[in-house]
Amino acid sequence: MESNKKRREESMRALEREIKSRDRKEKTQPLGVALASLAVIGLATAGIYWASTHDSDDAVEASEETSTTEAAEQDITPLATERTTPLAETVTCSYEDSGREASREVSRPNQEDVPARGTVTVTLETSQGPIGMKLDRSVSPCTVNAVEHLAQEGFYNDTICHRITTSGIHVLQCGDPSGQGSGGPGFQFANEFPTDEASDQAKQQPVNYERGTIAMANSGLDTNGSQFFLNYDDSPLPPMYTYFGTIDEAGLKTLDSIAEKGAAEGAGDGAPAEEVKITTATVS
Predict the structure, then answer these.
(1) What are phi and psi for residue 150, nearest 5 degrees?
(2) Quick check: 45 pLDDT over 50?
(3) How far, in Å, are 68, 176, 259 from residue 129 at the CA level?
């Protein structure tokens, strides 16, 4: 027990150092760099991080000592999927210029009287099968508003999911028409749940983005654009990625099939071994 406690304390200190290092690097980058690449993530006990730059040769580095047992010893809390305090029925959102040219021409979403109640269904028809997503306005209304708008304008049609990660975290990343991982809609918006409810201390503690959850990718705080990641299995991450919905059962079956094929050349992170193209994204 004493050994486990010491290990957890050491890993939290390592995580804090890693996040501070990430923050220093982000402050030196242009606002729009890598709009939706996942930045450094924290599962310090397992020695895992995801290095993100504006280039396409991002990589996952994982310690050979990584194990399910070590991850379990951290007692990582599952990500909550409801706010502690409900939002008002409508909110005002802000979609600011990202400083980078849009990968595909698209208008800005409505910013006033954005509903913060109910759900929106977006179905991704992909080359590997359908992925249904139920987006929750009550947790992240500005995010849902943006994704719904982009889908309605065809922004996601005929785009590839450019990245799958099978080591440390388990995600399929989509939403960049350029297919390079550095593209977006030309605008960006602030993080919502769980970031906006987390204390400074809590932001340094990993939470478990569980299988079936959806979150926005970013290159730092408040740089959300169009890219999102689908968790086909549990993914421990700092609460710095906006959660905004869940994947339906059919979608999880599609993701399981994609994940089974893995990444190209057997890598732990990279392009899917078999192309995953979103042919259409339909709002209902």
Answers:
(1) -65, -40
(2) no
(3) 30, 19, 13
- Give residue-wise pLDDT tens across range 146-198: 999 999 999 999 999 999 999 999 999 999 999 999 999 999 999 999 999 99
Pair 201, 239: CB distance under 8 Å? no
Comparing CA positions, the residue from 154, 132, 279 lying closest to residue 214 is 132
Closest Cα partner for 173 from 114, 236, 217?
217
Sheet (strand 119-126) strand order:
159-160, 277-283, 119-126, 129-136, 243-247, 213-216, 228-231, 171-174, 163-165, 269-270
pLDDT above 80 (res 4): no
For residue 228, list its beta bridge partners. Answer: 174, 216
Neighbour tally for 65: CB within 10 Å: 9
Distances (CA, A) of 23 to 28, 80, 149, 205, 241: 9, 24, 30, 15, 15
**What's this model's pTM, rounded to 2 decimal places?**
0.78
Give pLDDT tens digits for 223-268: 999 999 999 999 999 999 999 999 999 999 999 999 999 999 999 9
In the structure encoding, which two tokens stand for residue 35, read together?
A: 């709009």
Between CA 238 and CA 252 the distance in angstroms is 23
Candidates 96, 227, 224; CA nearest to 155 is 227
DSSP 186: S
Would strands 235-237 and 228-231 be described as parallel, antiparallel, or unpaired?
unpaired
